[in-house]
Amino acid sequence: MNWWRQLRQGGEEAVATAVPRRVLLIIYNPIIPFEGNRKLHQALGWHDPDELARQFIQDVYYASYGTAVYEIADRVEVDGLPMKADGFQYDAESFLFRWHTRTGFHQPDLADYPRILADFAVIPRINLGEIDEVWLFGPPYAGFYESIMAGPEAYWCNAPPLDGVGRCQRRFVIMGFNYERGAGEMLENLGHRVESIMAHVYRREKGAANLWQRFTRHEQSHPGQAECGTVHFAPNSERDYDWGNPRRVQSRCDDWLNFPDFEGLVREVDGRDWGGGDIRHHHLWWLRHLPRAAGTTGGIANNWWRYVVAP
What we know:
Structural class: alpha/beta
Number of domains: 2
Number of helices: 10
Order of helices and strands: HEEEHHEHHHEEEHHEEHEEH
Distance between the termini: 35 Å
Largest sheet: 5 strands, mixed
Radius of gyration: 20 Å
Strand order of the largest sheet: 4-1-5-7-6
Helix content: 25-40%
Low-confidence stretches: 1-15
């Protein structure tokens, strides 16, 4: 089956209740005087971060069947690069030298997250409900995690929970995006956020009750029992990022479109079902299979997207 037809199969009419999310968008994109005052992404021929953000909002809305409704509540563009946790900071010239020579990038690479939150008054704005999460855009070696969670009882979200954020009244996620990369890599960041959050949601469930573990089965981990796989492993993958593998395997992936009323559907699938190796197409296919139904099963919401976008 063609990957696009497969994406559109399975209950378009079952649009879930929307969960609006207001985003603070912070773009680190210094102006380069010796490159005709072009911005860094322009000087290096990289993606426009604003266009990436627009594409991501559209992709996530589509992937979640209308559950995740993101809106840019505020946008800030910084003529500079973020400070590292140890106080180091690239200027535009030093960064470009390191990039062109591929040598001497500063270590440790981690950005100073508490400083970012303070500089942009993130915690007061979270507490007031002005914003619900933060998206950071920067070049490679900006020091961002793909995602990280902050706030009371924050937990692992593809990174250790962020400490030192002051009197925050609710949990929130900070996404880190690299505008050298494209829309598919942004969906990969989201996919790992999904994996972290849903593993946390199902952390106490054992055996058959752990539906998250069942969802992520693939041929390499569970021969003959593949379901939807993970971000890195499609149902038939033999290694990480192996989204174009032509081998055919039996999979129950289609039955997740009927969740929670499984019908026992099993069919043969291969890489053509999720785009033949294209990162964005695979991730959209995978995200579209996340449950999105009403009600609960075992006390856990049948719409997993609600946990992903509003942890």
